[in-house]
Amino acid sequence: MAKKHTLIDINSSKADPAVAIAARYGNKPDALLEILHDLQQELGYVPEKSLPAIANALNISRAEAYGVATFYHDFHLDPIGKHVIKICQAEACQSAGGMQVIAALEKGLKVKLGQTTSDGLVTLEAVYCLGLCPMGPAALIDGKPKAAIKPNTVDALIKELVS
Amino acid sequence: MIKIFIPRDMLAIALGADEVAEAIVLEAAVQKISVQIIRNSSRGMAWLEPLVEVETPKGRVGYGGVKMKDVKGLFAAKFYEGGKHELGQGLVEEIPFLKNQERLTFARAGITDPVSLTDYIAHGGFEGLKKALTLSGSDIVKEVQESGLRGRGGAGFPTGLKWKTVNEVKADQKYVCCNADEGDSGTFADRMIMEGDPFLLIEGMIIAALAGGATKGYIYCRSEYPYAISTLKEAIAIATNAKWLGQNIQGTEHCFTLEVRRGAGAYICGEETAMLESLEGKRGMVRAKPPIPALVGLFGKPTIINNVLSFCAVPFILARGAKAYADYGMGRSRGTMPFQLGGNLERGGIVEKAFGITLRELVEDFGGGPYMGKPLRAVQLGGPLGAYVGANQLDLKMDYETLSANGAMLGHGGIVVFDTTVDMAQQARFAMEFCAIESCGKCTPCRIGSTRGVEVIDKIVAGENRDANLLLLEDLCQTMTDGSLCAMGGLTPMPVMSAVKHFPEDFDKPTRLAAE
Ligand SMILES: Cc1cc2nc3c(=O)[nH]c(=O)nc-3n(C[C@H](O)[C@H](O)[C@H](O)COP(=O)(O)O)c2cc1C
Ligand code: SF4
Ligand code: FES
User: Fold this and answer.
1) What residues in B contact A92, CB-CB < 8 Å?
2) How is domain B117-326 classified at the CATH fold level?
3) Which of B65, B234, B420, B493 is deepest in the core (most CB within 10 A)?
4) How far apart are CA A3 and CA A7, in angstroms?
C-alpha cells in the first residue's frame, strides 16, 4: 500500500523527465531517437511509462513511440545492470578469438549474452563491430573502449569493473 | 618545448592511449622537461597503437605499442630526443606500411590535431571548397563525374550522377545526408575520418550541398562510435564559428547547416532508405524504390546520400582536378580506396591504395599474414554480406569489376582474415543468424528464411540428410536473393554460399570425422 502511494506521489509532483528532454529538441518528431538516447542516459533505461508523454510532446501516436523504442537494439525498456559490457560478436573479432572471450565473460559473470547478473551489477550484451577490428576482440565497457581482450584477462577485467 | 603526439583515436584509447598520455605528462613534470602533448589522429597502423611520436629535427620518430609501464623507460632512453628504445620504430613516415601507400583521403592521418582548424588549413584543408565556391553547381557535378568516383558505402553507384539528379530537380528544400552508420563488421575507415579528420567530411558535404543546391545536412552516425559523435559535434561548432558552415559561408550567398544524429544499434539503418526513416524519427524500415532518394528523400525532399568516404574523396577532386584523381585506379574503378585490414593479421589498419592492388599484396605484404603463425585459410571481403574467398584466390585484383566477376564484392572495403582454426560452416551459420537478428522484417524470405537457414545449416553440420539439406540451403538462398527488397536479405546468401563453395569440407564434418 505504502509503496503504491509513493509512486503516485512521484508521478504527480514531478513531470516525466522525458518531457524536458523532448522540449530540448524542440519537440520535433524526427528527434525521437535522440530523445530516447538522452532519456536512457539519464535513467539507465527507457521506462514504458515515459512513452505516452513523449508521444504527446512530439504529437505522434503512442504506437509509433513504442514501435521505435522496441525496434532499435540500443533501447532497453527495463532497467539493466549498473555496468554494461558490450562485447563484439562480429567476424573480425571472431577471427581473433572473440568467441572464447565471450565464453569467458559468460562464465565469469554467470550470465548469457543479453542477461544481467543476479546482483544487478553487470549486463552483458553483444554488439556487431565497434570499428576496432584489427585489434580484436573488442568491447565497450561503460562506454569506454577496450581492445585485444584475452580470455585469461577477462576475470581481471570484471573485477576492476565491479570493485 | 618538445612536441609529443599521442593519438586520440578510439582504437588507441582502447589500447591505453589516455593513460599513456597522462603518465608522460606526469613524468615530464617530475623530470622538469617541458613538453607539449598533441592528441593527434591515428596513422592507421593499428598494431602500433598507441603510437607515440616525437618531433625531432629529422622528422617524427615513433614508439609503438606503448603501455603505461613503458613510460619511465622511454624517459630513461631520452625518447623525447628520439633516443633508442626497444619500442622504437624510427622515422614514422619511413615505415614501409605507411610509405608504400597512396593516401589521398587519409593524407592528414596521424599528422594533424583533428579539431585544429589551423592544422587543417595548413595541410591543404578547404582548398577543394574554395574552388567549389567559384563554380556553379553543375560544374561541380561535372568535375565529380569526370573523376569516376563511385560510392564507397557498398553499392558503388557513380557519385556524380547522383548529384546531377539532385542538381537538376527543382524543390523548395533539399538535403545532404551522410551515411556514417558503418555497420559492416571489419570496417573502420569512416570512424577514423570522423574522429581524425572531421573537417574533411564537413568540407565534402558542403561541396555536395553546393552541387545539389541543398541548405541543410545531417550526419547519421552509429551509436557505437561515441568518440566520432563528440568529435564531429565539436568540429561542426568550430567550423560554424569560423563561417565555413551556417549563413553566408565565407562571405558568399551560400548557406549550409549541419547536424549529427545518432543511430541506435540497427544494422539495417545503414541501408539508405532505412536511414532516412530513422533520421525522421521512425523505425528503420526499408522503403521501396522508386522513388529514389535523390528525388524523394529525407522528409520527401530531394536528398544527396553518400558514404563518409565518398564525401571525403571530393575535396581532393575539386582541389586537384578530376584527372588527378582518375589517374589512380583501373578500368571503371577510379581513384584510391582506403582498404581496412582486420581480423587475424600481424599488421592491421588502413591501407589506402589505388584500385587494382591484389588481395595478396594487401594481406601478405602490408598485413604480414595471420599473427599466430598459422596459415591463412579464408578472407571475408566487404562486410557481413560479403563473400568468403580462399587462400587460392589471393591474386584477385581489388576493384569493383574483378570482384563481382568472381562472386565477391568490395563493399565498404573491409578485409577480414581468418587462419586455419576457422570453421566455415559456423561462419555461414553466423551470416544467417546475423540476418535474422538485423532484418527489418518487411520481406518473408529475409525475416523467416534466415532463421530457416540457421536450422538447415545445423542439420548439415550434424550430418542429417546432408545432401538433401545442402540442396535445400541452396534453394533457400535463391529465394532470399530473388525475394528480398534490399541487400540485407538479398546478399546474405553471398557469405553462406561462398563458404559452401570454397570450403565444402567444413560442411561434411561427420564424414570427415569418420574417416579420421
Ligand atoms: C543492409 C545494408 C546496410 C548498409 N550499410 C551501409 C553503411 O553502414 N554505410 C554506408 O555508407 N552504406 C551502407 N549501405 C549502402 C547504402 O544503402 C547506400 O548505398 C550508400 O549509403 C550510398 O552512398 P555511396 O553511394 O556514397 O556509397 C548499406 C546497404 C544495405 C542494403
Ligand atoms: S531484405 Fe530484409 S532488411 Fe531488406 S527490406 Fe526485406 S526484410 Fe527488410
Ligand atoms: S568486428 Fe569486432 S570490432 Fe569490428
Assistant:
1) 185-186, 342-343, 414, 416
2) Rossmann fold (3.40.50)
3) B493
4) 6
